[in-house]
Specification:
By secondary structure, chain A is mostly beta strands. In chain A, 5% of the residues lie in helices and 30% in strands. In chain A, a hairpin with an 8-residue loop joins strand 5 (81-88) and strand 6. Chain B has helices at 45-58, 67-79, and strands spanning 11-14, 18-26, 29-35. By secondary structure, chain B is α+β, with helices and mostly antiparallel strands. The chains are: A mainly beta, B alpha+beta.
């Protein structure tokens, strides 16, 4: 079952490359319920990202989140945490990729989030979404 | 920046708990071992640069394609 995500997201550390933007809103990308994408938009609307639940692409996706991150996000239980990954959609959409290496980890109970970088080298920064 | 010369087998200590060991230095390449607590994340710097670059690309506006078109491609893929 899909986790219910909070609408307001507060980053405890900057998203890499986006300094000092901490407050975002998270929403469905489309009215169509079959559309798995989400939109993460800065509260000041200066930037937005398209996100996807990585298990849509890789059912076995299971990043190791250390206690330090859990504590930073204000929890001790893994059940509070959910991962969403940033998608890059180029003009040639067949080449769209998802960043499985640096998921956005969200505490669904309080909306705190962080973009972490996994040490696990099996996960790619540019994992191809479509196999064509 | 602090600069220290070390030979293979020698090490330096950062803080109280991180040890950086020079394992091998040959042909312009250094093999380094790091002993630290699991909570200390150790990454190649290029990885962070690549994540930053990818984030910036991801933040660029979509072209003419709509999110519904892309969504339909994914849900098709997921069912297969």
């Amino acid at each position: 079952m899909e986790k219910a995500y909070p609408e307001k997201i507060v980053f405890k550390k900057d998203i890499y490359g986006f300094k000092d933007i901490k407050k975002y809103s998270l929403s469905k990308a489309s009215e169509n319920d079959n559309n798995p994408f989400k939109i993460l938009k800065a509260e000041d609307e200066s930037v937005s990202f398209i996100l996807l639940d990585p298990t849509v692409i890789d059912k076995s996706y299971n990043p190791i989140i250390n206690d330090k991150i859990a504590r930073l996000l204000g929890t001790r239980t893994a059940e509070d945490l959910a991962a969403l990954c940033i998608v890059v959609i180029p003009n040639d959409i067949k080449r769209m990729t998802i960043n499985l290496r640096s998921p956005i980890i969200i505490n669904v109970s309080n909306g705190y989030a962080i973009q972490t970088i996994l040490e696990d080298e099996r996960y790619s920064i540019r994992h191809k979404i479509l196999d064509c | 920046m602090l600069v220290i010369s070390r030979k293979a087998g020698e090490s330096i200590i950062i803080g109280d708990d991180i040890e950086v060991v020079i394992i091998e230095a040959q042909n312009g390449k250094v093999k380094i071992g790091v002993k630290a607590d699991n909570s200390i994340r150790i990454l190649r710097k290029e990885i962070i640069d690549e994540v930053t670059k990818t984030n910036i690309q991801a933040s660029e506006k979509l072209g003419s394609i709509s999110i519904d078109t892309i969504g339909s491609l994914i849900s098709k893929e997921a069912k297969e």
